[in-house]
Amino acid sequence: MSPCSAVTIGCWASDRETTCPTSLADYNGGMIDAGSRTVHLPTPDATTALAVTLAEVVKPGDVFLLSGPIGAGKTHFARSLIQSHLSRNGQPVEDVPSPTFTLVQTYASGGHEIWHADLYRLTHPDEVEELGLIDAFDTAICLVEWPDRLGDSGPSNAVRINFRQGDNDDGRIAEIEGLPPHLTHTLGRFQHVWS
Fold first, then answer.
1. What is the pLDDT of residues 104-143, one digit of tens each?
2. Which among 39, 108, 130, 179 could disulfide-bond with 183, CB atoms 3.0 to 4.6 Å apart, if both were Cys?
3. CATH code at position 92
4. What total of structural domains would you count in the chain?
5. Which of 189, 160, 145, 148 is nearest to 2 (CA)?
6. H helix runs in the chain, sequence order
7. Residue 1 within any structural domain of the chain
8. Does a structural domain hold residue 7?
9. Measured between alpha carbons, how far is 176 from 70 in angstroms, rounded to an integer?
């Protein structure tokens, strides 16, 4: 675990229904608390801001294991990261549905793939192999909801984000573990921009 990898964010965004944020400049507020790995996300826009921040530097081999109860913000985070990455790479911003029924959705962006998986419907870890997800961990950017269904197949170097209810109805708290140096550095830039 990295010693400096958590964020406390308070953000308000412009209307993302007509524009897709592509950088930190699209948001107001937020700072990093280097002594913690807990992210306070008071609004859905703050969750988007965190995803946009990470989308700036994610690369193939980055795996995000997103856990938390239904409605905790896993899909919102994944959708925001994917749409921001597509936009940053000159791709049309697509609708990013939850892959609850398809299990996996893939997107081409910046010369590589982004895999978004929702493993909620899997009943046994062996089913993960059939999806091709294990190979994608090494070659693509992967966002995996319900990672407990991976069993022992989850990569040890994955970024683990656990979402839970925050202080208000729209707020969330995300506990982040396992940020690699390039993502930790990005969060440091976030602090510099907003502090």
1. 999 999 899 999 999 999 998 888 888 999 999 999 999 9
2. 179
3. 3.40.50.300
4. 1
5. 160
6. 44-55, 74-88, 126-131, 133-139, 181-194
7. no
8. no
9. 18
Q: What is the model's pTM?
A: 0.79
Residue 70 CB coordination number (10 Å) = 8
* CB contact set of 102 (below 8 Å; sequence gap of 6+): none
Q: pLDDT tens digits, residue range 54-108?
A: 999 999 999 999 999 999 999 999 999 999 999 999 998 888 989 988 999 999 9
Residue 2 lies in a domain: no
Is the confidence at residue 20, as pLDDT, over 70? no
Count how many Cα atoms sit within 13 Å of the Cα of residue 108 in the half-sphere of its side chain. 1
Give the Cα-Cα-Cα angle 73, 171, 32 (nearest 5 degrees).
90
| Spacing of C-alpha 26 from chain mean position | 18
Inside any domain, residue 123: yes
86: containing domain = 12-194
